[in-house]
Amino acid sequence: MTRFNISAALLIAGTLSACGPETNRLTPVSNPSLYSVNQPVVQRSDFVFDLAAAGGGVPSSERARLADWFDSLDLRYGDRVYITDQGYSDPRSRDDIADVAADYGLLLSEGAPFSVGSAAPGMLRVIVSRTRATVPGCPIWEDQMVGAPETTSTNFGCATNSNLANMIADPNDLVRGQTGDMMRDVQGSKAVKLYRERTPGGSGGK
């Protein structure tokens, strides 16, 4: 089991939204605007696990090892689970791994990270990618009030964006957001329809 850290990750400063304003090289100590320079930075860590797979799927002992590994990682929403098999393609094995991931409420993702390499022949490599959002350097207490130019506090944005980074369930959403679901919630639509068309209580003299 090996861990790969991608420390260069995805810097969100100035790009938290697609139409975010230009920072013009603003810094926390030189920020005459009302723009929040202290923005979340998203970092990704990749964890890999190799397991044996027979032609008829993944043996139960290997599935148990995989589940134990998921437990040790505290696998949760926001994690991405991939498979790389170096040309060894067995739909049954993929389904077996997908079943284990489903017990944690996750689906298999497509497009495994290139940084983790491939498993040995006859082996399957399972990759868990986890992202974490932080606001580096916060809090910042460097204001010099006497004789200082008119600037926004160096600590401006630290509280709000640090709370956002800590509370967001999937830090990947800070990078690319979520795409809309074209499927309609039939049950939800039915409930709304009944609410809108229901005769108000007390009508008709009752």
Protein architecture, described:
With 206 residues, the protein is an alpha+beta fold. Helices cover 25% and strands 19% of the residues. The chain has five helices and four strands. It has helices at 60-73, 91-102, 158-167, 173-176, 186-197; strands at residues 2-11, 41-52, 80-84, 123-134. It has a four-stranded antiparallel β-sheet. The termini are far apart. The relative contact order is 0.19. Mean pLDDT is 78; it is low at 4-21.
Task: Give a quick rundown of the structure.
By secondary structure, this protein is an alpha+beta fold. The protein is 25% helix and 19% strand.
From the structure provided, what is the oligomeric state, counting identical versus distinct chains? single chain
**Class of secondary structure makeup:** alpha+beta
Radius of gyration: 24 Å
Approximate strand percentage: 15-25%
Q: What topology, given as strand order, has the largest sheet?
A: 1-2-4-3
The coarse overall form would be flat
Helix content: 25-40%
- Spell out the helices and strands N to C: EEHEHEHHH
Helix count from the secondary structure assignment: 5
Distance from first to last alpha carbon: 70 Å
Main pleated sheet: 4 strands, antiparallel
Total E-strand runs? 4
What is the typical, i.e. mean, pLDDT?
A: 78
